[in-house]
Amino acid sequence: MASARWLKGNTHTHTLNSDGDAPLEEVASWYQSHGYDFLIITDHNRITDVSGWNGAGGALLLLPGCEVSLSSEGKPVHINSLGSATLPDLSAAGTITATLQRGVDAARAAGGVPQINHPNYKWAFTDEHLRAVVNYRLLEILNASSDCNNFGGGGRPGVEEMWDRLLTAGRRIWAVASDDTHHMRGERWGHRSPPGQAWVMVRAEEQSAHALLSAMECGDFYASTEVVIEHIEAGREATALRIAVERDFEYTTHFIGAGGKTLAIVHGREAVYRLRGNEGYVRAKIFSSNGGIAWTQPRVLP
What we know:
globular; 2 domains; 10-stranded mixed β-sheet; 302 residues
């Protein structure tokens, strides 16, 4: 993929067509003016038409989609259907696991790529539910809106811990960070969900829906809240990455393997982990001294 480049995008966005506070044009204009390459509109249980924006010649590509918003066992079960121009089936099932599967299947049937959203929103479900669900790759491990309990607490696991449990069980799941944008106007503190807090960087050969979604399905992207990774290389003997330096920030990379075990900690802009072959998988989590984080996708070892 010599011609591929990194494209910045958000996969979870609401407008006035559901519970956002701004129309599509205002939402898209903000993301375009802040350097994003693509934005997926995921209003609850409806498809928002984005064709008018894409025909106007702007740098930002809008993709259609929706957030399939269901309920089961008294808990919210939300699955994004990324890229679907038709509305998926919106029927729930009798259990959380069955409803998750039904939402994933509905997204696929509508031509979308399923992304399972915010498991800890209202403590809805865990990796035990997710382990029985098939035909999905994307899991939102960080939702930057309010009230999503990303990091767990009170004895409950964070979503990143759930991700490691799924990976350790042999599931190939890719981590997504997203805004879940609702609030473009008014205050941006407290229980608010403003834009620009978390995103994905996708390595694709062109700025098209097909190229972007195909790359995400293959895990050719990373998730971030601030950190920019210039280069990721998975060689035969090592995994290496190079971080783009911003201001005077310092960086620390944790290489993580099966069971969420920290395999190595490397300080500095360049980080290399030499494979031993018994790690199960290797992923990187990069911390910035400014508080930002980036997550690479797991490299599964034989």
